[in-house]
Write a structure and sequence with these properties.
Chain A: GO terms for molecular function: ATP binding; ATP hydrolysis activity. The structure holds two protein chains of two kinds. By secondary structure, chain A is an alpha/beta fold. Helix content of chain A is 35%, strand content 27%. The chains are: A alpha/beta, B mainly alpha. Chains A and B meet through helix 3 of A and helix 1 and helix 9 of B.
Chain lengths: 307, 402
């Protein structure tokens, strides 16, 4: 049963269309990335999936059923707009939030002992939320999102405000989570983390899906016909190569190929050059970062042309 | 349902442990008690009580020759005629006199009287002196003197004077008819609004600190709101109970003669006060929660709250009229309008026997409006909750109710 299936949903607010038409599916046990520029409609989409808003059109299925409290109890949520009860102490606040998710106080205490220890918050349990640093508050909220051991974890910008140590910690937990067969939906602007963690992704821009598929597919889809080459020795001319561009001072070369030449043919041609030793040969895939910028700017460009 | 109670418990405990709540709840009766004690100590209207309080008589020096009649024998313990100012001062210094009034020679022309005393509390026993003076000035009209003297004579404490005592009680009952409704109305007014504004605060707080988004994935808006209403209602209930209990205790100790005179502490009024507190709180609490749902920040909310308070104040405006005629059309009308009913009823209850049907009707109206308000508040809550940053305009509100 897929944890989340979104089918052609749309949502408008008084003055603006937040989501025009969005469909995607998130399978069990995967880490799924929800990407898009600010104001693209990601948060609205998440809120509809969580039954906080009703979509104007389209359907949403959580674990095969219409969104409701039963399904929501199987979901953990880290909202983008962080918030905890500022005047409560850390432990009471987390116990209350766990209680709202149906975890009994004694059980919540037991689980919290482990999580707070792991997140290096064990010494701060009696401190007021207000007195915790932003990073600590974020970790606390992360704990609140998974204390009831949900089957689906939806995290909006989970790495914001975290230092590298804590970022690594969260990554670890997310991976563990997926390894247990649970599902993670992650919305973030940190593309390198998406490349690192996510298997599949959807990108939304202006309320519509612009990219959808596995991260690899998407990157290949955007690959220019080019290869990256590291090596030493004299490099003779290669058939089908339009130009050779050194990438900075790294010694890496970017080879632009003509349309009829496949990277494999270049590799074979290189093998036939005994004077040149290949250290690294790779198809030049664009980073998600580049793709992101290209897609978003491309949309702007298209609109300007239309106008 | 279980989560509704969890919310209720959470809200109750969170607020009941706040120092500000504890201080308000406990300090209010203390201040009230202190005020009552102070008022009693400074009461100048009943001279007998005063003389009993200080134990020293008053005097007067009559240089104007207006006191043609001697001080009645029954009052000599409290008022003494003095021959001149010097002897009065001497008596004060000797501690035999509390103070004296000096009527100068030109008193009848100028009307000025001088109070001489070492005390700082100001002129004492004015009513007593004024009555004596009136009696003297009206010496030619004895029937008028009797008339003027009567209330004074009736308030005298005598060894065996049951009749006088009863009349004195009637006078005190007169004071109570004002104090009791006023006290009930104020207690109700304050608790309803303190609990209701806690509710407003709690609703806006979750919006301001963004917890609401998380909370709404765990519980339905109506259930959440119901939990808050229950928890904070209980909070106000504790407060109103403490205040009423303290008030009753104060009333009992300060006017010990009350029960002797057959004026029982109005327990029905206390019960009704609790009932009307709950209903009034529900109506206003849900209204304020609705306000909380539509605004982004507490600041905005406070302005709307000011508007909502007005109907609650209306009965206080008409207080004198209601006290004068607790069964008038005005009083009854206000008892059936949900926003004015609680306070109006509390003014009326100690004064008159309200027919059962009136109470039933007003309770039903309140109950129905409370439920309606709560429902509307929950709908607004849903629509308003996450539009933080985006104002909820009239159209969106109407749409969300549809």
């Amino acid at each position: 049963m897929d944890p989340l299936v979104i089918d052609k949903i749309a949502k408008s607010f008084a003055t603006q269309v937040a989501v025009r038409e969005v469909s995607f599916r998130v399978g069990p046990g995967e880490i799924f990335a929800l990407l898009g520029p600010n104001g693209a409609g990601k948060t609205t989409t998440i809120r509809m999936a969580l039954d906080i808003f009703k979509p104007d059109r389209g359907t949403i299925a959580l674990f095969g059923q219409a969104p409701g409290l039963d399904a929501l109890d199987r979901i953990g949520y880290l909202p983008e707009e962080r918030g905890l009860y500022r005047n409560l102490n850390l432990l009471d606040c987390l116990i209350y939030l766990a209680g709202l998710k149906g975890v009994r106080t004694s059980e919540a205490r037991r689980r919290l002992t482990l999580w707070l220890e792991r997140f290096d918050l064990a010494t701060h349990t009696q401190k007021k939320i207000n007195d915790l640093s932003r990073g600590m508050q974020q970790k606390a909220q992360f704990i609140a999102a998974l204390i009831h051991e949900p089957d689906l974890l939806i995290v909006d910008e989970p790495f914001a405000a975290l230092d590298p140590v804590n970022t690594r910690l969260i990554k670890e937990v997310l991976r563990e989570f997926a390894a247990q067969g649970r599902t993670v939906i992650m919305s973030t602007h940190q593309m390198h983390l998406v490349e690192e963690l996510a298997e599949r992704m959807v990108m939304i821009n202006r309320g519509e899906v612009v990219l959808y598929g596995t991260v690899d597919e998407v990157r290949r889809q955007f690959a220019a016909n080019a290869v990256l080459l590291d090596g030493h020795g004299p490099l003779a001319a290669l058939p089908g190569v339009l130009s050779v561009e050194p990438l900075g001072d790294t010694g890496t070369l970017l080879l632009h190929l003509d349309e009829t030449t496949a990277p494999r043919e270049i590799f074979q041609a290189l093998a036939a050059q005994p004077a040149y030793t290949v250290d690294r040969f790779a198809v030049a895939l664009p980073s998600l970062d580049e793709i992101f910028v290209r897609v978003v700017e491309g949309t702007h460009l298209a609109e300007e042309v239309m106008a | 349902m279980q989560r509704t109670f969890l919310v209720a418990r959470h809200e109750f405990l969170r607020h009941v442990l706040r120092p500000s709540f504890l201080i308000t709840t406990l300090l209010f009766p203390l201040i009230l008690g202190a005020v009552m004690l102070f008022m009693r100590a400074n009461a100048t209207t009943s001279p007998d009580e005063l003389a009993a309080f200080t134990g020293k008589p008053l005097g007067y020096v009559d240089d104007a020759g207006v006191f043609t009649l001697p001080v009645p024998a029954s009052l000599t313990a409290q008022v003494q005629a003095l021959s001149d100012v010097a002897s009065g001062v001497e008596a004060i210094q000797a501690g035999a006199l509390q103070g004296f009034y000096h009527f100068p020679e030109d008193y009848l022309q100028g009307g000025t009287v001088v109070w001489v005393s070492e005390d700082v509390t100001g002129p004492q026993g004015q009513a007593l002196i004024a009555t004596l003076l009136q009696a003297s000035l009206l010496a030619d009209h004895p029937e008028l003197v009797t008339q003027l003297g009567r209330p004074l004579a009736l308030q005298l404490p005598t060894e065996d004077g049951q009749a006088e005592l009863a009349t004195a009680m009637a006078a005190e009952r007169g004071m109570l008819t004002f104090v009791l409704p006023y006290a009930f109305a104020m207690v109700l007014y304050i608790t309803i609004f303190s609990a209701a504004s806690f509710l407003l605060q709690s609703v806006t707080e979750e919006k301001e600190n963004r917890t609401i988004e998380l909370v709404l994935t765990t519980i339905r808006p109506l259930a959440l709101l119901t939990g808050k209403v229950l928890g904070l209602g209980l909070l106000g209930f504790v407060q109103v109970s403490i205040w009423l209990a303290a008030g009753m205790l104060l009333l009992k100790t300060s006017t010990g003669a009350l029960e002797q005179a057959g004026l029982a502490v109005p327990w029905t009024a206390v019960v009704l006060a609790l009932v009307y507190y709950l209903l009034g709180y529900l109506v206003y609490g849900s209204l304020l929660a609705g306000v909380g749902a539509t605004v982004t920040h507490m600041r905005e909310g406070s302005q709307l709250v000011a508007v909502l308070i007005i109907p609650c104040i209306v009965p206080l405006w008409f207080m004198t009229a209601i006290i004068d005629q607790p069964d008038s059309l005005l009083a009854r009308g206000l008892s059936f309008f949900p926003m004015t009913a609680p306070v109006t009823m509390m003014i009326r209850v100690p004064l008159t026997t309200i027919p059962l049907w009136e109470i039933m009707l007003s309770v039903s109206v309140l109950l129905a409006s409370a439920i309606a308000c709560l429902w509307v508040a929950a709908r607004l809550f849903r629509a308003g909750t996450l539009l933080a940053g985006q104002r909820l305009d009239a159209r969106a509100i109407v749409k969300s109710l549809g």
